[in-house]
Structures are given as structure tokens and as C-alpha cells.
Amino acid sequence: MDSLVYTLFAVAGLLVLVSLLPPLAQRLRLPYTVLLAATGVGIGTLLHVAGRSAEAGGFGFAGDFLVAVGELDLSSQAFLYIFLPVLLFEAALSVDVRRLMDDLGPVLLLAVVAVLMCTALAGLAMYGVWGLWHGEATGTALVVCFLLASIIATTDPAAVVGIFRDIGAPRRLSILVEGESLFNDAAAIVLFTLLLGMLTAGGSMDPVAAGGDFLVKFAGGLAVGWGLGKAIGWLVTPMRNQAQSEITLTVALAYLAFIIGEHYLGVSGVVAVVTAALVMAGEGRTRISPESWEGLENVWSQLGFWANSLIFLLASMLIPPTLLNATWGHLIMLAALILGATAARALVIFGLIPGLTALGAADRISGAYKTVMLWGGLRGAVSLALALAVSENRRVPDDIQDMVAVVVTGFVLFTLFVQGTTLRPLMRLFRLDRLTPVELALRNRVLGLSLSDVRQEVERIARDFRMDPEPALEPLLDRGAGLAQEQLDLDSMGALSAEDRVYIGLSTLARREEELYLGYFRDGVISRLTVQSLGAAVGRLQDGVKTRGRKGYEAAARSILRFGPGMRTRLWLHRRLGLERPLANGLSERFAELAVQRFALQQLLHFTSQRLSPLLGRDTATTLHELLAARLAAVEEAMAALRLQYPAYLRELEARYLVRAGLRFEERTLQELFEETLISREILRDLSRELNQRRRNAEQPPRLDLGLSTQELVAKVPLFAGLAPERVKRIERLLKPRLYVPGELVVRKGDRGDAMYFISSGAVAVRLPGLSTPVRLGSGEFFGEMALVLDQPRNADVEAIAYCQLLVLDRRDFRRLYEEDAEVKAHIDATVARRQAPVPAAPAA
């Protein structure tokens, strides 16, 4: 049989085998990777025992399959360049980036510090045994021991996360384990590469140089992954509804990140892949068309399943022949490795993580969580493949190749067949498979609400089909009564306090708000930039609830409406460089965010009344309603301020939002007509082209005119109204228009007076010492002249309380106008005298 045919036959047969293992693992209640490893060991043993008979044709069809599998040549290069990018990208793509960022401190500690500590402690433990066994320990021996320890420092989360999902373990525990595995794979492989290079170079070791190389490779991988992730995100953004192209770009991203980082730039390709995948996971929902995102997740899930299953199975098949070379010395080294690695992991989990909690960098992790994380550090295909890379390296002595292969294989088998099979009972021992009283109370309320909906649906179906509903309703009523009694028992124990209810309600509202924004984006109503900005805002809400409960939610809600660094940068560009377009774009985006928030908050109010009130109680719903109403009022106030300044623009923007919503509905209608065979594919294609053109036009925001024409602004200032046209034109050349946003400080008390300000439109608040309430100045008035006339520092803070169009006259031009124009000088002097009165009728600045 041709070698290509043999290869295809072997791969196809193995795919059939791995497709049968997940349901078998579920039935046997074993981790999938444990069963996968056992199957691989079984096939490897069968190949070793019956391989020659199969080659002689003694087993027929099955014999050909064994021969084909035996001829599969799995090299370390094949693993690194074919399987590893897929494994890492798929694992990172499925991570909840927001939740990962919440526990980034513990994750990085476990990933980087734990890898270094495991390498150090386990390596030193084996180094001590080496000295006792061989009578001496050289520098090369130390490098070999550290190399061994770095290989097993990487953990495989597949088994433990699978168990977590089966028994309903807390989501946070899964996030910690998944995040740890992502980054410690990267850290361990970087360290392994450095140590293998030292070993093949003669065993010399420079800790300082090694540490520097480690940081450079790790940081370089982060930069490469982030840059490529952003670049592919930029490329994929305009590919709306081109699922094949969008998904293909992400597959290319995984391999490009690895190859460019590892082969061309000499940094960590593993770190680059993980970082690129996290960038795509964080931004993909807003950059990739919503219709394609679900398909992309399914494709990557399938690719990850194939890669993980095949690499684990093929690597496990090498275990039987490897263990034939085992000696007592290898077993002693293995025992030292197990003890050293366990001690290092325990030191990190029970020693360093509490330090992060004490510093406020991480939430508290219970002792039960820590114990499960300690015992759940399983090793898998990555460790076996790294050991294979050592055994294939001809520059490594044969005895070291054998030792690395045997010890790593033994360690992987220990973690899989000892730790992996006892992890589920350990979690049951700590009751991590059970809901807390708070979660149980919430579960009962949700289930009770669901049963009520089910009962109504059953009654409706029975009426429609003229059937008797009693047989179906009786078990529902019995179950509802049991839930009600269980809930009464929990309520009597105070399982769900008022504070707990508010916390649950706010957490639910924050998650619901995020889903609403994503839904608006999927419907084509809001832009990618808007959903990204609002997604980050909702993240702050979730963080606020998590850390400070109701107060944290309120503080985060206030921060959402403030003008952020982006708007301040746009204002700086406008004032320093005269660039109006960035500021106009920023104001357009602010209106879009305010409009969407208003709509979402109105829906959340309805959601609170209809869904959360029966779930959490009327009192809690009232509290939640008040918080949402306060947010809505603040949003309305911010929108009113913007609408007063730019009413025509906002009417145009609102109209375009409605047009985009209508286009989305039209698109769905066309698709339904096609599915009902009322229109042909050719007609659908023609109408879709026209619709896409109209969508592109509607997605372009209208141009916002900031209204900062100096001539028009000067005409609104009464002081200049009676002047001759030639004098007005001369004054216009001296004045510079500026826009100030609500809450922005225009003048600060104590600063040197370098300009005066004329209010063309808007209003400011002047906060004078000795006055309990600020004095307001509106259109046509001016301020800042006293510091220039009297040559003294500013004596008040002046803050914009609306969108203000101001004309700014700097100190030098003020002196020229003040001295040359008697009419203007007289008006300013009269104002200064009035503002210097003992009981000021008007403010000074």
C-alpha cells in the first residue's frame, strides 16, 4: 500500500476511534484525556507485541491499520508547527477575557512564577538525587535536571476543566485553571528552549543571561501576538457576512503568529499565539460579523478537538517502548521530580496567592479551591512532545535522552492515572460539586419561575389541541410545591439576605446590559466602535459590583458618563493644533453611546419588573429600579446638553440609526422570502447588493459642524455688536474659537492669567471664595479679564456646565485691544469695577 494511502488510512481510523471515546469517558465518568492516554498506551503496546505479525498480514484489515498507525512518524517539529498553534489558539479563543482579567494576578503568578519555581525546586530535588546516585553532580547535570523540570512545568487543563463542567464547579475555578494553562505553556516552553540550548552548547549556565533571554522572548512574543491580532482584526472588520474569509484569517493568524515569532524574530511563538488569540477573543465579537462568530467558534472547537486528540493519542503510543528503557535510577529521579513539583506548586498556591490577596491584587481563594488546583495540575501532550524533542536531538547524549523520555513519561502517567482519576472524588469531598445556600436559593427561584412559564405553555397547547392538561400538570404542580417548601426552609435560615439579592440583581443587570449591546450590534443598529466602548463600560460595572456591591455599581455608572482620555485628547488636538474633525467624531460617538445607553436602560427597567421582581422580590426590584432610573436620568441630562448645542445634527443621526434598523429588518425579510422559495437566489443576490450599498451609506455618520466660525461667534457677543465692521474684522483676527464640554475646567484658581474668554453660547459656573453657590454666566458674557487688567492670579475656578463655544483672547492681544479701543476698554473697566464691589453682583475670574 502506498505510504500516502497508509497515512490517510491511519489518520481516518484514529479519528473514528477518538470520536467514540468522549461518550465512553462520560459513561465511565473518567476524564477524556485519561481515557485517551490509556487507549494510546494500549495501541502502543499492541504495536510492540503484535507489530511483526501485522506486517506479515496475520490480522487482515486490522493488521493493515496497525501497520499504518505504526508507520506514522510523529516528530517534535510536526507537533510544534502543526498541532501546537491550533491547540493554543483554540484554548485561548474560548476563554472569557473579561473574567480572565479579573484574576490576572493569580493567573500570571501561577503561569510564570509557578513555572520558574517548579523548575527550580523540582530541578534541585533531582539534582540532589543525581549526586547521591552517581556520586558527583556536574554543571551539565544541573542543566539536565532543570530541563526535565521545565518540561513538566506546563499543565494540561483539558481533564480538570472537563470534570469541573460535569459536576457544575464554580466558573471562577475553571477560569483560573484555563488561564494558568495558557500562560504557563508559554512560559515553560520558552524556558525549555533556553535550557535545551544550554545543554547542546555544553552545559554552561549563566542565570543572569538566561533570565534576560527569558524576558526578551516572553515580552517579544506578547508584542508580536498583540500586533498580529490587531492587524488581522483590522483586515477582518470590513468582511461583513464573509464567513469563509473571516474564519480562514483566524486560522492563518494562529500559524503566522507562531512562525513569525519563533522562526523569524526569535521570540516566543507560543506567547505570540496565545496573545493573538486573546486579542481576537476580546475583540472578535465586534470585528467579525455576528453571523460568522458562532461558526468560527464551532470550527475552532472542531480543530482543537482533532489536534488535542490526535497529538495525545500519538504521543501516548510512544509510552510502552519508552518505558522499556526504564532503570531504577530513572524511577528514583521520577520520585524526586514528583515530590519537587508538588512541593513547588503547593508553595505557589498556598504561599504566594494569599500574598496577592493581602495586597488587594486578587480576590480570596478558598482552601478547597487551592487544594483542587494543587491536585489538578495534570500534564499531557505538551510535556510528552517536549520530551520527544529532546530524544530526537542528536546533540544530546543517548543516556540523557533515555532519562528525559522515561522520567517525563512516568510523570505524565502519574498525573493522569493517579491525580486525574482521584480529582472527582476530591472535589466531592470538599463539596465543590454542590451549590452554596445563596446559589441554591437563586436556583429554586429561577426554577419556580420557569415552572410557571412551562405550566402556562402546557395549558395553551392543551387548549389548542383539545387535550386534557391534568396528566402533564400534576408532576409540575408537585415539583413546584416541593421547591416552594425548600425555598421557605432556605429563607428561614436567611440564605438570601437583602444585600445578596441586590448583588445578584446588579450582577444580572450588568450581564444583561452587555448582551443587549451585543444584540444591537448583531442587528446592525450600532457600530463596532460603539459596542466596544460600551462593552468596556459594562466591564467596569461588573467590576464595581464585584468589588463594592451597590456603591461600586453607582461609582462605575457615574464614570461611564464622564469624558474619558480619548475625548480629552481630541480637545487638546483642537485647541493646540486647530483640528476639528477628531473632536466632531468624538462628539458623534458620544451621542451614539448615550442613545444606546438610554434604550438599553429602558429595556432593563422592563426586565427588572418582569423577570427580576418575581425572582428576587419586590423590595429588591424597587432598589434596582431606583438605580436604573438614576442612571437613565443622568443619561437623559447628558443627551439634553448635547441636543441643545447640536439639535440638527442629532436629528440626522437619530434618523440614520432608524434607517440602519430598518435595513437590518429588510435583510432578514429578504432571507425569509428566499427560504420560503418566493424569490430566487438571483433575485436575492441582486436585492442584497442594493441593500448593502444603502447600508454603507447609512453607516457613514453625518458630518458634525462644531459651529466654531469666528465671524459667527463674534456676532453673538453683545460687546462687539455696535462696532464698525472694519473694527469687528480686526477683532476677529485676534480671537480663537474653542469648544469646552460639560464638567471641564476652563480657568483654575491661582493660575496666571494668560487670556480672557467671551461666551458665544453655553454657560459656565464661577466658584468664588465666600459664596456657597457658584455664579453662572451665559451667552454674551465674558470672564477672565480681571487677572489681566489687575495683573494678578486667577481668583476663582470656572467650569463649563454645558457645551460652551468660547472666544479666547490671549494676554498680548488683550493688551492691544484694551489700549487701542476706547469703547471696549470702557466696557471692560465698568465690568471690573462692578465685580470688585464688596458684595459682588457678578463674578470675577
TrEMBL record:
<dbReference type="InterPro" id="IPR006153">
    <property type="entry name" value="Cation/H_exchanger_TM"/>
</dbReference>
<feature type="transmembrane region" description="Helical">
    <location>
        <begin position="331"/>
        <end position="353"/>
    </location>
</feature>
<dbReference type="InterPro" id="IPR018422">
    <property type="entry name" value="Cation/H_exchanger_CPA1"/>
</dbReference>
<dbReference type="Pfam" id="PF00999">
    <property type="entry name" value="Na_H_Exchanger"/>
</dbReference>
<feature type="transmembrane region" description="Helical">
    <location>
        <begin position="107"/>
        <end position="133"/>
    </location>
</feature>
<keyword id="KW-1003">Cell membrane</keyword>
<dbReference type="InterPro" id="IPR018490">
    <property type="entry name" value="cNMP-bd_dom_sf"/>
</dbReference>
<feature type="domain" description="Cyclic nucleotide-binding">
    <location>
        <begin position="719"/>
        <end position="835"/>
    </location>
</feature>
<dbReference type="InterPro" id="IPR014710">
    <property type="entry name" value="RmlC-like_jellyroll"/>
</dbReference>
<feature type="transmembrane region" description="Helical">
    <location>
        <begin position="373"/>
        <end position="391"/>
    </location>
</feature>
<keyword id="KW-0406">Ion transport</keyword>
<feature type="transmembrane region" description="Helical">
    <location>
        <begin position="182"/>
        <end position="202"/>
    </location>
</feature>
<dbReference type="GO" id="GO:0015386">
    <property type="term" value="F:potassium:proton antiporter activity"/>
</dbReference>
<keyword id="KW-0739">Sodium transport</keyword>
<feature type="transmembrane region" description="Helical">
    <location>
        <begin position="214"/>
        <end position="237"/>
    </location>
</feature>
<dbReference type="GO" id="GO:0005886">
    <property type="term" value="C:plasma membrane"/>
</dbReference>
<feature type="transmembrane region" description="Helical">
    <location>
        <begin position="6"/>
        <end position="25"/>
    </location>
</feature>
<keyword id="KW-0813">Transport</keyword>
<feature type="transmembrane region" description="Helical">
    <location>
        <begin position="139"/>
        <end position="161"/>
    </location>
</feature>
<feature type="transmembrane region" description="Helical">
    <location>
        <begin position="403"/>
        <end position="423"/>
    </location>
</feature>
<keyword id="KW-0472">Membrane</keyword>
<feature type="transmembrane region" description="Helical">
    <location>
        <begin position="299"/>
        <end position="319"/>
    </location>
</feature>
<feature type="transmembrane region" description="Helical">
    <location>
        <begin position="249"/>
        <end position="279"/>
    </location>
</feature>
<dbReference type="GO" id="GO:0051453">
    <property type="term" value="P:regulation of intracellular pH"/>
</dbReference>
<dbReference type="InterPro" id="IPR018488">
    <property type="entry name" value="cNMP-bd_CS"/>
</dbReference>
<keyword id="KW-0812">Transmembrane</keyword>
<feature type="transmembrane region" description="Helical">
    <location>
        <begin position="78"/>
        <end position="95"/>
    </location>
</feature>
<protein>
    <submittedName>
        <fullName>Cyclic nucleotide-binding domain-containing protein</fullName>
    </submittedName>
</protein>
<dbReference type="Pfam" id="PF00027">
    <property type="entry name" value="cNMP_binding"/>
</dbReference>
<dbReference type="GO" id="GO:0015385">
    <property type="term" value="F:sodium:proton antiporter activity"/>
</dbReference>
<keyword id="KW-0915">Sodium</keyword>
<dbReference type="InterPro" id="IPR000595">
    <property type="entry name" value="cNMP-bd_dom"/>
</dbReference>
<feature type="transmembrane region" description="Helical">
    <location>
        <begin position="32"/>
        <end position="51"/>
    </location>
</feature>
<dbReference type="GO" id="GO:0098719">
    <property type="term" value="P:sodium ion import across plasma membrane"/>
</dbReference>
<keyword id="KW-1133">Transmembrane helix</keyword>
